[in-house]
Amino acid sequence: MMKHKTVFHFLLALLCALLCSLCSSAPKRAVEIRTMRFMAETQLDLSNKYAGRGNYKQALDMLEESRRIAIAVDDPELLVRTALAYGDILYYSDKTDEALVYWKDALQTAQEAHDRELSAVCSIYLDRYQLLSNPGNPAVADKVKHNTKENMAFLTEDTLNAANGWIVAALAEKELKNYGDAEAALKNAFSIHSKGNYLELAAYDCYLLASLYSKQGSYEAAIASLHNAIGFDRRAENSHGLGMDYLALGDIYKKTGNKNSSIEMYTRAAGIFKAARLEKELQQAQEKL
Amino acid sequence: MRFRIKYQEQIVGILSFFGIAVLIFVIFLLGSNKRWFNRDYHYTTVLNSGAGISKNMSVMHKGFKIGSIESFDLNRDDNVDVKFTIYDTYNNYVKEGSLVELQISPIGLGNQFIFYPGRGSTQLPENALVPLVNSAQAINLIEEGLADIPRSSDSITILITRLNTLLEGINNALAGDDTTSLGRSFLGVEDILQSLKASLLNIENLSAELASKESPFHTNLESSLSSLSGILTNLNKSSEYLPSDMPQITAMIVELRESLMSAEDLLQALLNNPLLKNGVPKRANTQSSAIYPRNTEF
Questions:
Q1: Which residues in chain B have their CB less than 8 angstroms from residue A54's CB?
Q2: H or E segment at A68?
Q3: In principle, which of A128, A159, A273, B33 could form an S-S bond with A282, CB 3.0–4.6 Å?
Q4: Cβ <8 Å between B296 and A163
């Protein structure tokens, strides 16, 4: 009897092992070659990373190559994403008209590809442009808020797109001085970024939250949020982000009248920028000092 | 019978009268050509030398004879006083600021005594001194605006004058005059030549040192060249095989790549196994979406 039990347990274990080894949670997709697209995506991500840190020149260099591959392989998603990235870099380089051309081109490409999610992403980008170009305009902010929420219904596949939508919605709510709704939207974005281990983006969410708290006069909450941002930026080794977080801390301490802490934060930021050879940001920090 | 012309005394009288009249007429004609009855005006000038002038030499103005030289003599200052006349028809040209010039052709083509009318409004009195061009009085008159700077119509003289000016400029430049650009250029060339000389001297010394077999540079160069020679020999030997093996290397690379892709697929499958999945450490995701520069107001 004992022998039968042992054999039974062994067979059961073997069966379980076989079942588990046959299971796979890998997504099923059609056979294809993605070598060049993978390269383009890597370069696009690097480009976005450089751009997020204010290094637009290097971002453009990476993006040009990514765009070239996107055009070569005629991948709609890549074409849309590279066009959106181009628009971003041009917008923050004060070339607004050219940026708008790229964003509209991205929307057209997405519509031609009949990709509802991509079209929604492009619409959110254009709404964001409207919001940033019309500061202090409640009518525009309200329109952007409603459009973004409508478009977010289509953002089902890529969580990053959904997070971006939440950020735009938060910015719109902030313009409308609906700080509670803005905070909720930002926390949704933060949740997506932190769970997906998007460290730099999570840091930015905390940075933006801190700005929101500061506007409301909740300086303690702002300082705590900035310390969270610093934590994420340290993990991501994001020198630019760290410096900007310390600069923001300096601003908040200055607002609260804590001059010594303010100078300490500015000095720390200047030290980080100097070590990272970020000349423009260093100058900014030194001006604050 | 004696032949007698009737009224012979009257005819002789008339012919005599006619002859005298013709004589007077001829005298007047000759006289008017010689300007015996014209009122000429006399003026003087002072030249450095009497060479090139002669009595009755024409005084010219724009190709027309407007007078002539009467006489010329040495004066106490060892200069030449020249007396000349200007015809009455042209006397209105002799205004304040008038100048005269003696143009001597350098190649013996004839001399000219030229008159330049002045720009002043006052008529010069008779026997007034008309200054010579380039004299101190003439320069003063030009500065005062009463006289024009005479332009010579003699192209050869112009050419020779310009040549003189050019040669004078070159001479001054070579002598070290730095007031002109040519002079400054010559000085600059001199400086460049000096520094070039110094550089050449350095190069000479350096090349002497390099040429010396005992110099450390030479020793190092020798050893570098010998090792380079060795490398090139090895490269030659290696590259002898390459052309024949290129297709094989290509094939090897393709096979290696395919092996890596298979390994990646296998690893991906293992990672997706639910039993193993949670044991794989999480990595930070570097993917990003929209760009948000951190320039928000606080």
A1: 293
A2: helix A56-73
A3: A273
A4: no
As a whole number of angstroms, the distance between CA A174 and CA B212 comes to 81
CA-based nearest residue to B290, from A142, A237, A233, A170: A170
Cβ-contact A263, A250 below 8 angstroms: yes
The DSSP bridge pattern shows strands B80-86 and B41-47 to be antiparallel
How many helical (H) and strand (E) elements, i.e. helices and strands, does chain B have? 6, 6
Average pLDDT, integer, range A167-177: 95
**Angle made by CA atoms A186, A187, A191, in degrees to the nearest 5:** 120
Nearest to B285 among A24, A88, A196 (CB): A196
Q: Across the interface, which of B277, B287, B292 has its CB nearest the CB of A204? A: B292
Beta-carbon separation of B269 and A244 below 8 A: no
Long-range contacts of A187-196 (CB under 8 A, 24+ apart): A188/A163, A189/A163, A189/A164, A192/A159, A192/A160, A192/A162, A192/A163, A192/A166, A193/A163, A194/A232, A196/A159, A196/A160, A196/B285
Q: What spatial distance separates the first Cα and last Cα of chain A, rounded to whole Å?
A: 84
Q: Check A92 against B291: CB less than 8 A apart.
A: yes
Q: Which residue has the tokens 């929604």?
A: A120
Across the range A127-137, mean pLDDT stands at 93
Which residue in B114, B98, B111 sits closest to B62, CA to CA?
B114
- Other Cβ atoms less than 10 A from the Cβ of A135: the count is 9
Tell me how far apart the alpha carbons of residues A178 and A150 are, in angstroms, rounded to a whole number. Answer: 19
Q: Do B297 and A211 touch (CB under 8 A)?
A: yes
Q: What angle do CA B72, B74, B77 make, to 5 degrees?
A: 135
With b for 16 or more beta-carbon neighbours within 10 A and e for fewer, the B50-59 pattern comes to eeebeeebbb
Contact B289 A21 (CB under 8 A): no
Distances (CA, A) of A48 to A35, A57, B60: 20, 12, 92
| Phi, psi (degrees; rounded to nearest 5) at A66 | -60, -40
Instruction: Render pLDDT for A261-289 as a digit per residue (tens, 0 to 9).
Output: 999 999 999 999 999 989 999 999 999 98
Structure tokens at B18: 């006619």
Q: Which of B58, B53, B64 is nearest to B93 (CA)?
A: B64
Residue A241 contacts B where some CB pair is shorter than 8 Å: yes
Quick one: closest CA in B to A215, which residue?
B298
Rounded to two decimals, the ipTM of the complex is 0.74
φ, ψ dihedrals at B71, nearest 5°? -160, 165
